[in-house]
Amino acid sequence: MAHSRIVQFRDEPMNDSNKSELLSADDFVDDVCFVGPIADYVSDECDSIDDFKWLIEALRSILGVDCERHFSWHCDPNETYIIFNPSFKTAYFQSQYKSFMELVSQTTIDNFSCRQHMQNLEDTVQEKFGFYVASDSFSLEPLDSFIRSIPNEESKFWLWTTIDYHY
Asked: In this structure, are residues 121 and 107 in contact, taking their beta carbons and an 8 Å threshold?
């Protein structure tokens, strides 16, 4: 199969007073909603800076040539963060929305009762096997769901760590 990452984003930088909230693979070993249904296993054996760059490249490929209008980032070992601009969500979901609407327009009563067609619809709404985000409330969620939850205003999130998962 393949590997992806859990990205821990917080709305504040890590410091001595909150460092105890840093996640590790051990935090997910007993998570029966993630390990089992989604992941085969989780591991701390990854490089957070490289993983952040991987996430940035994934976002850039979705948004295309004018991606800098929608988000910015800073990446170094001392401080790594991403800033989502108000236009980000609309730009990010544009292609998914178009694919979803095409599938909806092709939906008949026959394929509405077909598992594969409905799975295709679900996959256009939210990618099940890709980046996951653990945020302030430790709500582990797919990247698409996390993006839907960010406000429609400039939002800054600091990278705390990444965790590898295999699916």
From this structure: yes
- In this prediction, residue 137 carries a pLDDT of 61
Q: Determine the Cα–Cα distance for residues 157 and 103; give it in Å rounded to an integer.
A: 33
Cβ atoms of 54 and 164 within 8 Å: the answer is no
CB contact at 8 A, 162 and 24: no
Centre a 10 Å sphere on the Cβ of residue 132 and count the other Cβ atoms it contains.
24
Mean pLDDT of the chain: 93
Average of pLDDT values for 73-97?
Answer: 95
Q: How far apart are CA 99 and CA 152, in angstroms?
A: 23
- Asked if 1 and 166 touch (Cβ cutoff 8 Å), the reply is yes
Give me the pLDDT at residue 139, please.
77
Is beta strand 41-43 parallel, antiparallel or unpaired with respect to 3-10? unpaired
Tell me how far apart the alpha carbons of residues 160 and 84 are, in angstroms, rounded to a whole number: 17
Could you identify the residue written with the tokens 């800076």?
49
Residues 26 and 163: their CA atoms lie apart, in Å, by 10
Q: Which amino acid is at 23?
A: L
In the chain, which ranges are E strands?
Answer: 3-10, 41-43, 71-76, 79-84, 132-134, 140-142, 155-166
The residues facing 85 across adjacent strands are none
